[in-house]
Amino acid sequence: MNEAGYEYFLSLLDDAKRVVCNDTLGESNPFVDYTIEKKEEAIINKTSDKPVSLKDLYLNCHSCNNWINRDHRCLVGRGALHPLVLFVVDKTLDSGAMLSAEDGVMINTWSNAIKLEKTKECHLTSIIKCPGESSEVNDDCIKILKEQVKSLSPKVVFFLGNLGAKILGFDSIEKARENVSEFEGAVAVVSYPPMMVQRDPRLKAAIWNDLKKVAFYAGIKERRC
């Protein structure tokens, strides 16, 4: 059996153990990436000499009661691995999705407006990654988000909501919009969440102004022409 075969075999053993233990989220049996070290022909854990993965940080977080609502539908994020723009919403819905269908259509419209290529240049995540009633962001939520930004290295973090403004030290979206901030090495722009814009279409002008900022700092302002 070659190295790839051994790696796949070991991952299957882990998957089987999680199924037997009904541990679909890997709480007790964490997800591990195996690799074969050719020099010693030894099996090592990739995470043994590297920082804890985002998935592990997420699955091992029990800072609030929202963790009990996690299931296979919940994601740390989705999109390009090296995006120009990271869209960040406040919460995860009860369904496990980060956006409703209507909100998703709106964000697609916004990204299209500045000619962002969805599959290669955009990534979506939420600050509170577990479904639940609580809307209070805690230190572990921010820790996971910071690690996510470091991993993805976007040029712009586009916060859509009050929690993003709060993380950056502002008491409202309006105050945050007056500034361009920095977050873990990326430019941070704050604007209104899709739901708020749907309720008050007058905010569309403000969104367009903020999208122009995003395009400028992402280095793609000429695409709007």
Label this structure with key terms.
225 residues, 6-stranded mixed β-sheet, 9 helices, two-stranded antiparallel ribbon, 8 strands, globular, alpha/beta
Describe the structure.
39% of the residues lie in helices and 15% in strands. The chain has helices spanning 3-20, 54-59, 101-113, 118-121, 139-152, 162-167, 173-177, 194-199, 204-218, and strands at residues 34-37, 42-45, 78-79, 85-89, 122-126, 156-160, 181-183, 186-191. Strand 1 (34-37) and strand 2 form a beta hairpin. Residues 36-49 have low confidence and may be disordered.
The shape, in one word, is globular
Low-confidence stretches: 36-49
Distance between the termini: 55 Å
Identify the strand order in the major beta sheet.
3-5-4-6-8-7
Number of DSSP helical runs: 9
**Helicity range:** 25-40%
Topology of helices and strands:
Elements: H1 3-20, E1 34-37, E2 42-45, H2 54-59, E3 78-79, E4 85-89, H3 101-113, H4 118-121, E5 122-126, H5 139-152, E6 156-160, H6 162-167, H7 173-177, E7 181-183, E8 186-191, H8 194-199, H9 204-218
Parallel strand pairs: 4-5, 4-6, 6-8
Antiparallel strand pairs: 1-2, 3-5, 7-8
